[in-house]
Specification:
Strand content: under 5%
Shape: elongated
Number of strands: 0
Number of domains: 2
Structural class: mainly alpha
Order of helices and strands: HHHHHHHHH
Length: 173
């Protein structure tokens, strides 16, 4: 059984992230070379390149969720708070555009896609729920999820929030 060293795992993730941001080209061989380790050592931590890239994205996703919360909490109105949430999500989607825009890849089963989508929506809905409570907004039990779906939709393009602002104004009225 190989010895697992947490710092080495973090180094692999950091190297993959650097390669992804610099050239959007990542191989296990490159990551191993960047970290002065053998290719097999990387595979002790990540069974595939996809698993390594998923870890890179999850690290950034956790940061994105924190930014959504913090950014939304800085605004004095609910619409501005939701817009801040959308901006934080848009930064993430731009950073991971090649993966994010195709996360419904045909290789994924519908069950996997629905599971991922549900997890993403629930993270965004948690932030939306904080906004709803902070501004004492009234609405259906599913309002946070509806807002999350709209924000997720808006994150696909630069002008996405502008496209949904009218709908949000009606929902929040």
């Amino acid at each position: 059984m190989p010895k697992i060293i947490p710092e080495l795992k973090d180094r692999f993730v950091a190297a993959a992230k650097r390669r992804m941001l610099e050239a959007n080209d990542v191989t296990i061989r490159q990551v191993a070379r960047d970290c002065d380790t053998a290719v097999g050592t990387v595979y002790n931590y990540f069974p595939s390149k996809e698993a390594l890239m998923a870890e890179v994205m999850m690290t950034d996703w956790r940061i994105c969720c924190e930014h959504m919360r913090l950014d939304a909490g800085r605004y004095a109105g609910p619409l501005e708070a939701l817009q801040a949430t959308a901006r934080a999500l848009r930064r993430f989607t731009k950073k991971h555009a090649s993966v994010w825009l195709n996360y419904a890849d045909a290789r994924d089963s519908l069950k996997t896609l629905n599971s991922r989508h549900h997890l993403i929506v629930m993270e965004i809905a948690a932030v939306a729920e904080e906004t709803i409570k902070r501004f004492d907004l009234k609405g259906d039990t599913y309002l946070p999820e509806v807002l999350a779906e709209l924000i997720l939709y808006a994150s696909r393009t630069e002008d996405g929030f502008d496209r949904i602002v009218g709908v949000l104004e009606k929902i929040l009225a």
